[in-house]
Amino acid sequence: MHFAHEPVLLHESVEVLALKPGGTYVDCTLGGAGHSLAVLSTEPSIRLIGIDRDPEALERAGHRLQHYKDRVTLVHGNFRHLARILADQGIDRVDGILLDIGVSSPQLDEGERGFSYHQDAPLDMRMNPDDPVTAQDLVNTLSQKELARIIAEYGEERWAARIADFIVKYRAIEPIRTTSQLVQIIKNAVPAAARQGGPHPARRTFQALRIAVNDELGALRSVLEQSVPLLNPGGRIAVITFHSLEDRIVKEFFQSCLGRCTCPPDLPVCVCGRRATLKLVNSKPIVPSAAELEKNPRARSAKLRAAERI
Question: What is the pLDDT at residue 246?
Fold first, then answer.
């Protein structure tokens, strides 16, 4: 199978990791191995652990990284279990952690995976085919209230309540099994005026369901919490996000690790005892250049934040 993936913010992410000779690095979202390939080719003495929950991506990345196989360990797993995965490899600390959050281009382009609203396929959306819950399960079993919440919160869709209402009415007649069924339901739910111009009317709902199916936000919070004690002093974590909710989680987590005093301003001395565990590498998120956006329009919402273990 042909595999094409344009890694986003490639040079910027390698740069903020500040690679150390002989260091150990983790690519928590191996995907097409673009970032890992750049890390390995930049510093010839690095050891790399590559993790992906998608077995197809892992297999293809293995072929792409074959030249570096003596320095690479590939793991099929969810990065939310990062500490356990590293412990299984006999690793206590690493010098860098990279996360590229969200769905990959191949997953979108392979219609049979059910991620795309442009191709008819079973309504699946699982990054790991072994996971138990599909998007089809969610749209056919969740309450109208819960569907509306997911679509509004994860998709930031203004018509979430109406879309949820149309989903529930449709499934009362027949189950929703395919992407094309769901796309038509969404088109029927969104008023015609709101469908003029702008992104595809199903984009936000599909995004919301994908995030829910794969518990992407929960996994992100979990790996961030584990990351700090897993980093050597001077080690760095770099996170690329494509969604405002993800970026907010990363920003707030980094802020919480800066050790800023939370005592009331009228106290004469600090009693909260907060100590910094991270310092920011970049105070503002790094975004793609105009040249990258021209080459890869899917990078338009990408943001890169990085922090260093104190």
Answer: 96
**290 and 270 in one domain?**
yes
The reply to whether 255 and 280 lie within a common domain is yes
Whether pLDDT at 105 is above 90: no
CATH code at position 288: 3.40.50.150
Percent of the chain's residues with pLDDT above 70 = 96
Total domains in the chain come to 2
**Residue 195 lies in domain:** 132-213
pTM of the model: 0.92
Same domain for 174 and 221?
Answer: no
> Which of 153, 180, 213 is at the close of a domain?
213
Query: What is the average pLDDT across 301-305?
Result: 96
**Of 54-58, 75-79, 136-140, 222-226, the least confident:** 54-58
* Three-state SS annotation for the chain: CCCCCCCCCHHHHHHHHCCCCCCEEEECCCCCCHHHHHHHHHCCCCEEEEEECCHHHHHHHHHHCHHHHHHEEEEECCHHHHHHHHHHCCCCCEEEEEEECCCCHHHHHCHHHCCCCCCCCECCCCCCCCCCCCHHHHHHHCCHHHHHHHHHHHHCCCCHHHHHHHHHHHHCCCCCCEHHHHHHHHHHHCCHHHHCCCCCCCHHHHHHHHHHHCCHHHHHHHHHHHHHHHEEEEEEEEEEECCHHHHHHHHHHHHHCCCCCCCCCCCCCCCCCCCCCEEECCCCCECCCHHHHHHCHHHCCCEEEEEEEC
Domain assignment present for 54: yes
Assess whether 147 and 224 both reside in one domain.
Answer: no
